[in-house]
Each structure stands twice: as C-alpha cells, then as structure tokens.
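Recall the central idea of this unit: under ordinary conditions, the amino acid sequence of a chain determines the structure it adopts. In this exercise we apply that idea directly, starting from the sequence alone.
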Amino acid sequence: MDGYDWVGDIEVVDWDELSTLYRIAPLGEKPPDALRTVFGNSMFRCFVYAGEVLVGAGRALADGVDCAYIADVAVHAGSSRRRRAIWRDRAGAIASGVLRPAP
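Accordingly, the structure predicted from this sequence is:
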C-alpha cells in the first residue's frame, strides 16, 4: 500500500503512541506496559506508519506449525473505510505464513 510503512520490529515502537491508537481506534484503554508484554509474546506483529504517525497495529498468536489467531488489530479512527478494509486484509496476512496444512 503506497504511503505506508509496515514494520515488525517492536524495538522501534513508541508504546505510549500505540496505547493512544487503541484508545482512538476505539478499542478501549490498553496500558503501554501491557501492550509491550502482549506484542512481545506474540509470534507475529505488524505496525503501520503513515510517515511518522502510527496508524495501524496487529499481532498474531501462533504455534509456528498450523494454528494462529489474529489479535488486537487497531486502525486509526480517522482512516477511510477503504483503508480500514485494506488493513483488515493485511492483518490476516500477518499469520498466513503459519497457516499451512499439517504434513
């Protein structure tokens, strides 16, 4: 998606900014330390930036073989419907690498 950077590195995340994103998404209050823990414990995570602004985030819990679920997907409330739909599609792709048939 043009104009957006997709980042998986949790070392660059501003946890206060992520907490604000969840509040305005609106997905409720999620304290920065709690978000650091849950994203740190997730096998896959993705943060979406429009320039310097965090506009989306999501994570996938997975066993690394054949099971995963998407959690905590947030999109900035100011985003258009089309962008939110694209983000939901992309969030599903976060776990696609682990959702393959078992041998």
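Helices lie at 15-24, 32-40, 81-94.
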